[in-house]
């Protein structure tokens, strides 16, 4: 039929020249603070935020070989939410933080999320100081529960 698998390409980010040195300095600063203040593993948290598209679209499609332009249906749909996932050094997965775009809770999906999930909104669906403060308060309630259970 003449179809071939095609994928879009883009350049990858390059690491800074001093990455290895900066990484060691960063990790040493964390180690020093943990030792100085005797921070328990339950309070050492790693998190990351990512944008999640409501309509997932791949960069791959089937198309006739040799064509210069490869159109993908839905590629221009930019509706997203932001999801923050976090874990502690002790290995506990913390409840996610989900941010929807809107000005009121009416923009939230109409179903019940699992207990502890922090469902919120901002005008742009991007994190703000207010939304992050709310999440930190939410996860500290969870961490207190985990820490208490580990003491039993």
Give structural notes.
28% of the residues lie in helices and 28% in strands. With 152 residues, it is α+β, with helices and mostly antiparallel strands. The longest helix is centred in the C-terminal third of the chain and has 23 residues, at 129-151. Strand 4 and strand 5 form a beta hairpin. The chain is built from two helices and six strands, in the order E-H-E-E-E-E-E-H. The protein has a four-stranded mixed beta sheet with strand order 2-4-5-6, covered by helices on one side. A two-stranded antiparallel ribbon has the order 1-3. The mean pLDDT is 84. It has helices spanning 19-37, 129-151, and strands spanning 3-7, 45-53, 60-64, 80-88, 93-101, 118-122.
> How many beta-strand segments?
6
The class by helix and strand makeup works out as: alpha+beta
Average pLDDT for all residues: 84
In whole angstroms, the N-to-C terminal distance is: 66 Å
Radius of gyration: 21 Å
Q: Would you identify the regions where 5 or more consecutive residues have pLDDT less than 50? A: none
Q: SSE string, helix = H, strand = E?
A: EHEEEEEH
What form results from the Cα inertia axes? extended
- Number of discrete helical segments: 2
Can you give the helix content as a percent range? 25-40%
Largest sheet: 4 strands, mixed
Q: Beta-sheet strand percentage?
A: 25-35%
Q: Which strand order does the major sheet show? A: 2-4-5-6
